[in-house]
Every structure is written in structure tokens, then in C-alpha cells.
Amino acid sequence: MIKHLLLIALFMLLLTSGTTQAGTEKITLKMPPASLAQWYKPANKRQVWLHTMFRLRREMQAVKEYARQKDPVGTKKWGQRLAKNYRSIPKMVPEWKNEVRLDWADILETAAQKGNFKKVLRAHDKLDASCNLCHQDFQALSAALYRSPDFSAEKIGFKGKTVHYDRFMELLSNTLNRIKIAIEDQRPQIAKRSLKRLKTQLQALGANCSQCHRDEIPKERILGQATQQLLKGLAESIRDNQPKQAGRFLGKAAVAICARCHGVHRTLSDLKGFLAQ
Predict the structure, then answer these.
(1) What is the DSSP secondary-structure string of 52-97?
(2) pLDDT 10s digits, 247-273
(3) 20: which strand partners?
(4) Is the pTM of this model over 0.85?
């Protein structure tokens, strides 16, 4: 869900950044600084940048709430944390040293210590505005570049061989189409053999998915019991020579397996490849 929202945000960014000249659309994107990559996987397994952003968001909320409540203890505690983490931004990404408002971080911390809640809220709004400006330019692009899947180097073990991910997806698509062609042309033996191959391919794909999806929930949604029931219905329809029913089962299986996965992974993966060119 979060990635879909980010994709929408990026799409809106692309729309608003385009200019039309003599009937030709020109799109200009602000790419995030190169130094940002060091704080994301695989360069940084601890995801330090993300955790810093999460802390800042939490601290911004706490400071605003406590200052509005005129709570000196809470405002001081969270104000110190906010100022500290905000100051880490230009240290982590030097290219942004002129984008942050360190002066307002100092003002906020000092005001929080003195219990000047009005000044705290004013400084909070200044820092919030600086965050929003950066997010507007870079958040969606950074998510696409650093938080979306990268299948470019992925390989899948299949029948004793190692197959590149793109090639494996092509083979999988060919198998699905072969089943559809055989059903329509009433060649049940080819359909049966192809369905058997499809199940073997899906098993290999599921093993590869487990490298990233440590729990069974995503895999269950794509390749779980509901999908197995669709494949069972497909097999029975082929066996009973019911091409229309088999076609319906095949279509439902394609949605459950291919469309669900592509809706999350493929769009973002393709976008990442485009941005990385």
C-alpha cells in the first residue's frame, strides 16, 4: 500500500514537472544526491537514513503536541532529540547542507529549554517546511531508487540450472500462453504437460521469493491454497475437456499469480531501472 502511494506521488511529480515545447513534452526530474545511496540497502543494511527520518517524524509530532499543551518536560525532552537528529542530516548528506535550517534547530532547542512554547512552535513550523520542501523534490524518487525491488541480478534455480530472472519470467509467460493456446485448440495433452511445467516453475519462483519475504504471508497470498485450488480446477477442466471452464480458471490464476505480484513489484522495478539509466 505504501509503495502504491509513493508511486502515485511520483506520477504526480512527473506530471507537474513536465513542460510542453512545440508539441514535445519535456520532463525534468531532480535526482537525489549520490551520497544518499550509502544509507540504504545494500550499502547500509541498518537502513540508518530511514530510521533517522522515522525518528524525526516522531519527534516533530511530540514537540508540537507538548508545546501546544505547554508541557515543559515533554517539550524539552523531545526538542533536544529533534534538534540532534535534524543536525545529522547535512552530516549524512553533505549536498543538503544549504537546504536544512540549522539556525531554527538551535532556536527550537533553546526555546524548549526555556519553556518558550510560542517560539518552539514557530521554529517547529520552519523545520517542518524545510522537510516538506525536500520531500516534495526527492521522497518519491528516493523510494523508487532505494526502496523498490531490484531483480537485475536475480537468478532462479530451475531443473538443475540457474536462470536469469528476466529469462525465467519469459519462460513462465510462455508456459501460460502455451496452456491457453492448447486449451483453445483442444489439445489437452499439450495443456496437461504445460500445466505440469507451470507448477514446477511456480515452485521454483516461490523458493526465490522466500529470499526476501521471510514470512509466509506474501507467498501465501500469491501461491497459497486459493491459487492451488484454481490450478486444481484448471487441471480438472482440461481433463474433462471443458475449454471454456479451463479458460476461466486460467484467467483467474493469471490474475492471482501474475497480476498481484506485478502490481507491487514490476512497476516499481521497471521505474527503478529507468531512473538508474
Answers:
(1) HHHHHHHHHHHHHHHHHTT-HHHHHHHHHHHHHHHHTHHHH-GGGT
(2) 999 999 999 998 888 877 777 777 777
(3) 25
(4) no
> Which residues lie closer than 8 Å to 73 by C-beta, 6 or more apart?
none
Distance CA 16, CA 27 (A): 9
Identify the domain boundary among 146, 177, 211.
146
The residues, ordered by sequence, that sit 6+ positions from 146 with a Cβ below 8 Å of its Cβ are 36, 37, 40, 41
Say whether pLDDT at 9 is over 60. Answer: no
* Under 8 Å between Cβ of 120 and 108: yes
How far is residue 264's CA from residue 268's CA, in Å, rounded to a whole number? Answer: 7
**Could you tell me the residue range of the domain that residue 38 belongs to?**
2-11+29-146
Q: What is the pLDDT of residues 207-222, one digit of tens each?
A: 888 777 777 888 888 8
Q: Which residues are bridge partners to 161 per DSSP?
A: 158
d(CA 33, CA 39): 11
Residues 7 and 113 in one domain: yes
Residue 225 and residue 135 share a domain: no
